[in-house]
Amino acid sequence: MAIVYDTYQREAPQRLPLLGSADPSRVLARRNGKAVTAAQFLAHVQAVAAGLPAVTAAVNLCEDRYAFLVAFCAIVLRGQTNLLPSSRAPQAVDEVMAAHPGCYALGEQALDPAPHGYRQLPSLDATLPIGTDAGWPLIPADQVVAIGYTSGSTGTPSANKKTWGSFHASNAGNLAMLQAAIGPQFEIVATVPPQHMYGMEMSVLLPLLGEIGVHAGRPFFPADVAAALAEVPAPRLLVTTPVHLRALVESGIELPPIAAMLSATAPLPVELAQAAEQRFAAPLLEVFGSTETCVFASRRPAVDADWSLYDDVILHPQPDGTAVEAPQLDASITLADIVSLSDGGRRFRLRGRHADMLEIAGKRASLADLSRRLLAIPGVHDGVVFQLDDGDALGVHRIAALAVAPGLDGHTILDALRRAIDPLFLPRPLRLVTALPRNETGKLPRAALLALLDQHDE
């Protein structure tokens, strides 16, 4: 008996393919040492979709990247929306589910405790019968297929809707940039979770729409990254973050030959970019974007401080940030980033974020630059400078810092900072900690920073 999906019952002015190629034999993913073809993937998607409840949205909690791909497309095929919390921590999941009454959660693992209405995927190891007469599914371009939540690094996480049409548009920019750097075909290994918009763009949309293969795992330790890369054929692209890059460089591990590395989610120090390129004999590319906009620019930070915009992207600098026009956006979105344009508006240099800019006694500094100078101190392994919520009688907010610096004391760090920055911007308090509360993508949620500071103030 044929399955009639909710999606097929909707009328939309335009429909776009769920998969970017009609070739059923192309390799979409590699899982447990085996290649998974597009046809077998679609069979898994259809089988999962048939068992989903008839509601409007689902929290996609899959950790295995192939399971996430199957769940993502099954949810989309049923005309539903993938909810992507900034973290899979129970509280973050509960908050998202509370904002979408009636939704359910979907994952490949047996969770205990599990979110309300949790459903576990069936095994994806079985080879299913492949139908050849139904054709490739088409999805309405205006269907909201995902809602991504920001990390909370600048405050409360916010929800951002993504349509299938907007994902097609943003993927086109990423694919063009990567193919220009690597070539028409490559295989992806990613250390970032697919729930994060960077992970979504580079390890979910590229294999779905760009005819690119992806490794199903999410390797964390350097040895795991090396093993995952060895399981995919060349040319290989490593999609990662500055935190993972630093660990790879410092580990001294040998990686299989890679065509390129890609980084995002946090500022990438030039010194680290140069060290990574030298260590792994491959170019390191960095992409610029946000959950609100998706990626819209790239650069190679080891050799270039300026960013190059994707085709048809236009920036409009504002006093409090920058308005972005891009093919994936229905209307311009203003980000807090301050930029200066060059090359006829096709390139830009980042000058800081409006929320990061500090002004005390007529002098200005940025939190990003202060953090960079903290990290440049020999012996500081990790660190961040941030502003506290409560201001003094004049409305000036105190500056605080957390640093991971075994073998150093606070006085030594402050003395080094005093030689690098204006004393007005010295962080007080500065607390030494064993680790910063980075999330899965290396970002630092503001609430976690304040909680850690409070612990050390007790």
TrEMBL record:
Gene3D superfamilies: 3.30.300.30, N-terminal domain of ligase-like. Pfam families: AMP-binding (PF00501). Keywords: Ligase. The keyword Translocase does not apply. GO terms for molecular function: ligase activity. Residues 122-306 form the AMP-dependent synthetase/ligase domain. It comes from the Bacteria. InterPro entries: AMP-bd_C_sf, AMP-dep_synth/lig_dom, ANL_N_sf, ATP-dep_AMP-bd_enzyme. Signal peptide: none annotated. PANTHER family: LONG-CHAIN-FATTY-ACID--COA LIGASE. This is Acyl-CoA synthetase. It comes from Rhodanobacter glycinis.
